[in-house]
Amino acid sequence: MALAGSGAAMDTGRFQTRQVLHVKSLSGWAPLCIGPYSQANLLAHGHLSLLAGSIGLLPSTMALITPPSLETSQALYNCAAVLHALRSSLQTAVMVVVYVNVGSEAGREGGRGWSSAAVAEWKAMVRMDAGYQKGDKEEDDSKNKRSSSASSSDSSSSDSDEDDDDEKFLQTYPAPVFLPVGVPDLPRGAVIEFEVMALSTAFARAQLPMRTTEQGKLVLSRREEEEGACPLPLPFQPAATYHQQAGDVAISSSSSPLSYAWEALHLPYVFCLLSLSIFLDEVQDDKSQEAGENACYSSSSSFLDYSHVALAMVQQVDKGLEHANLNWRQLSHLRIFYVADQLDDVSLLRGALAAALPAEGQCARTFLPVSCLAATDEEEGGKVLLFRVQAMALDLEKMRTEAWVHEVPDGGI
């Protein structure tokens, strides 16, 4: 099978791997960049857009909208405006990272409900965005409806069919993968920030992504049960076993105190975008019990074996790759969100993950400390969320080929 744009097309220099979008001045449609970054990066001829984080800035003044309760809708409006310029929309988003400023007064007032509230506001904005695009389309096509009565009748029937297709697409397109995290502060003191990854509208209509979810208990391997340690090479393997680290906390050698839940949006052989959450089944310490409902984390991870945590991450990411028929070579990035005061030494986890990943899966890895993590509605409640992992695997050549086969026009600028 040949790849679109292969051979002579690549030799002539028309092969372009990445485009960027910069908003450099005040405007009425999107905020300008407030730092040395791109507003958006476009891959695979614009079929995949990676937006920089967006906060509730008013494009015309570059000031945060007031009151803070309006920041969520304004931030999403800014995301929608940029996506429209790139021939995409909120409807075709595949992954959304939601940063909430839990250090702000508005963030504290939201309590533990900020995660669900942000997702609910996103869904409302998607419906509004769909109506906005429909209104623009009707206005642009109004001149074409002033022809003969016969053609007007045909046009009306065609518009009705298109509206039905749009509604069907909105109902069948899977919701994006959400990663809600709490941070101590955001640029300009904003309350919330959205980081969006989306497909071009044309590509999403031609190739509908699929959603896969899984959750369960992490069980120790036979060797771990026998030796009491994770089968990873030193120096990444902590010398102490679970029992030695736990102290007075009793942990059975045949079970793990951890469970997991992950969801992924994927297109076979093209991409896999996965969010993995690792939970502590029970809160063992008095500190988190005293915190009550406001506790976003537990300080009990001091008895966790970092090697076992790293191996669990790798095993679950591997499952997601298998569902998408991708391999470790196509894994481009891992981001690990963890509570800042949850880990006694993040370098141990960093080393353990490097040892657990296969040689062909040594992708870029980022460890991001946050204030707290909140479980989504689809994840199990009543457990302490220790880590959230964002995994991104892509085959950009295959994406370009799929677009070529289905005659999808280029996205982007």
Structure description:
With 413 residues, the chain is of the alpha+beta class. Mean pLDDT is 76; it is low at 1-15, 137-155, 222-254 and 283-302. The chain contains twelve helices and 13 strands. It has helices at 8-11, 71-85, 105-110, 114-140, 149-172, 201-206, 222-227, 242-246, 286-291, 306-323, 346-356, 396-405, and strands at residues 18-21, 40-43, 48-51, 88-101, 177-183, 192-200, 210-217, 258-267, 271-280, 331-339, 364-370, 372-373, 384-394. A seven-stranded mixed sheet has the order 1-2-3-6-4-5-12. A six-stranded mixed sheet has the order 7-8-9-13-10-11, with helices on one face.
Would you list the SSEs in sequence order as H and E? HEEEHEHHHEEHEHHEEHHEHEEEH
Q: Based on helices, strands and strand pairing, what is the structural class?
A: alpha+beta
Unreliable segments of 5+ consecutive residues: 1-15, 137-155, 222-254, 283-302
Which percent range describes the beta-strand content? 15-25%
The share of residues in helices is: 25-40%
Number of strands: 13
**Distance linking N and C termini:** 29 Å
Give the neighbour order of strands across the main sheet: 1-2-3-6-4-5-12
Estimated radius of gyration: 24 Å
- Taken from the alpha-carbon principal axes, the silhouette is globular
Largest sheet report: 7 strands, mixed
Give the mean pLDDT: 76
Individual helix count:
12
